[in-house]
From TrEMBL:
HAMAP family: Asn_tRNA_synth (MF_00534). This is Asparagine--tRNA ligase. PROSITE patterns: AA_TRNA_LIGASE_II. CDD domains: AsxRS_core (cd00776), EcAsnRS_like_N (cd04318). It is an enzyme of class 6 (ligase). Residues 133-451 form the Aminoacyl-transfer RNA synthetases class-II family profile domain. The keyword Nucleotide-binding applies. GO terms for cellular component: cytoplasm. Belongs to the class-II aminoacyl-tRNA synthetase family. It catalyses: tRNA(Asn) + L-asparagine + ATP = L-asparaginyl-tRNA(Asn) + AMP + diphosphate + H(+). The gene is asnS. It is found in: Cytoplasm.
């Protein structure tokens, strides 16, 4: 019989109704004859103000309550159209359900995000992290909703795998062998036949290759799951464990792939502006004052599109210098990506047709022999948000690429089979879910959009 604070805020008028609210004490201010409490119950970013008068039986206990204590308030909801908050509860009864210790490590003063990372189990109780993780949940739902409404089939690709989907080698190995006492074969090599899977396995870096197997049966599919990369990157946009959304479409080319990613991104942004206005307004006011403007622009403006070659020309002509020197053939660095999206276009921009040497083996060769049909979406503040491509569907070309990239052809035989039995052009992309969240929350560090982040040297909890 408790009422949610969210429900109270949804009602235009309250008519002095009797309600019962169960929540946590956020602040308490005691005046001569009454105390003002703010209580939050998790259903809303907003608190409800509770007025407790001196004549309540346990008034002394209440005035000494440490913040975070769990309380149950029964009383009347009174509209206060002239006050800052639209209504308040006049408590008839306030019982303490769980008293907090008084040494709660988070004070009312604003803590740095860095400090709050050391309190990852308590930071969901702050307004900022409440907003971020509410948005995380809504954004995930929006992604599923958009793709399902467009006929995409959700595929759960393996988390433990024996293939390196990106051919980049940044993998966490999975083993049951005792590393201090590895079994050896007679030839002195590690005896993998004694390992659980009897072969080398790792945590997946991407579900793409196995998603392709499903796209060639279901046409339009997607994965949305955890991926792992052992890149030793100490940057604000790399995590060792992150979630990726990977749509894959049969009969689609690079243009179709880009069109879908733009639509998907716009859908998520619109969904959040509709479903999380309080959270976005809070983040705009407290974390990133350009957030709402940026989201509106993302929703309304057509994304730009240029080739990699043109991007290099723009960077070479830039009226500023870069730490990492620009020349055709380099992998674009964050500073280059941000310059293009923030300064040149001031909105998301697709960069297409990258040199083949810096992209994965499965991307389709362009007729020029130098570039591949790849498209990265670069966005302000983040840089690369999406990586996509048209896949090499020609069996002979793919076999050649596997050789050029020095990959073991036996490991990719099943992947070649997909071309052998009914090849068709197909394309897809991967969105880093946490980078998307950084973009839609204004948070500047990927560690602050992951409930319990994993980065080099950090796997707490
Ligand atoms: O560009 P990437 O490596 O592409 C792939 O993995 C393809 N298989 C995707 C596909 O075509 N199906 O990664 C895709 C996206 C990046 O654009 C970036 O947003 C994110 O994943 N990402 C990371 N996010 C956080 N931490 C990391 N270490 C990341 N590495 C990539
Ligand atoms: Mg990439």
């Amino acid at each position: 019989e408790t009422t949610l604070i969210k429900t109270l805020y949804q009602q235009a008028q309250h008519g002095d109704d009797q309600v019962c609210v169960l929540g946590w004490l956020k602040t308490i201010r005691t005046a001569k004859k009454l105390s003002f409490l703010e209580v939050n119950d998790g259903s809303s970013l907003k608190n409800v103000q509770v007025i407790v008068e001196k004549d309540i039986a346990n008034y002394d206990e209440i005035t000494k309550l440490p913040i975070n204590s769990t309380v149950k308030v029964t009383g009347q909801v009174v509209d206060t159209p002239k006050a800052k908050q639209p209504f308040e509860i006049h408590a008839a009864e306030l019982s303490v359900k769980g008293q907090s210790d008084s040494d709660f490590p988070l004070q009312k003063k604003r803590h740095s995000f860095e400090y709050l990372r050391t309190q990852a189990h308590l930071r969901p109780r702050t307004n900022t992290f409440y907003a971020v993780f509410k948005i995380r949940s809504l954004a995930a739902f929006a992604v599923h909703q958009f793709l399902q409404e467009h006929g995409f089939v959700y595929v759960n690709t393996p988390i433990i795998t024996s293939s390196d989907a990106e051919g980049a080698g940044d993998m966490f190995q999975v083993t049951t062998l005792d590393l201090n006492n590895l079994p050896k074969t007679e030839a002195g090599k590690v005896d993998e036949s004694q390992d659980f899977f009897k072969k080398e396995t790792n945590l997946t870096v991407s579900g793409q290759l196995t998603a392709e197997a499903f796209a060639l049966a279901f046409r339009d599919v997607y994965t949305f799951g955890p991926t792992f990369r052992a890149e030793n990157s100490h940057t604000p946009r790399h995590a060792a464990e992150f979630w990726m959304i990977e749509p894959e479409m049969a009969f689609a080319d690079l243009q179709a792939e880009m069109a879908l990613s733009e639509k998907l991104l716009k859908y998520v942004v619109d969904y959040l502006m509709q479903k999380a206005p309080d959270e976005l307004a809070f983040l705009d006011a407290n974390v990133d004052d350009g957030l709402l403007v940026r989201l509106k622009k993302t929703s309304q403006a057509d994304f730009a599109q240029i080739t990699y070659t043109k991007a290099i020309e723009l960077l070479e002509k830039a009226d500023r210098s870069f730490d990492y020197p620009v020349k055709w053939g380099i992998d674009l660095q964050t500073e280059h990506e941000r310059y293009l999206s923030e300064e040149v276009y001031q909105k998301p921009v697709f960069v297409t047709d990258y040199p083949k040497g810096i992209k994965a083996f499965y991307m389709r060769d362009n007729p020029d022999g130098k570039t591949v049909a790849a498209a990265d979406l670069l966005v302000p503040r983040i840089g690369e948000l999406i990586g996509g491509s048209q896949r090499e569907e020609r069996q002979a070309e793919l076999t050649k690429k596997i050789g050029e990239f020095d990959l073991n052809p036996a490991e990719y035989q099943w992947y070649l089979d997909l071309r052998k039995y009914g090849e068709t052009k197909h394309a897809g992309f991967g969105i880093g879910f946490e980078r998307l969240l950084m973009y839609v929350t204004g948070m500047e560090n990927i560690r602050d959009v992951i409930p319990f982040p994993r980065t080099p040297g950090n796997a707490e909890f």
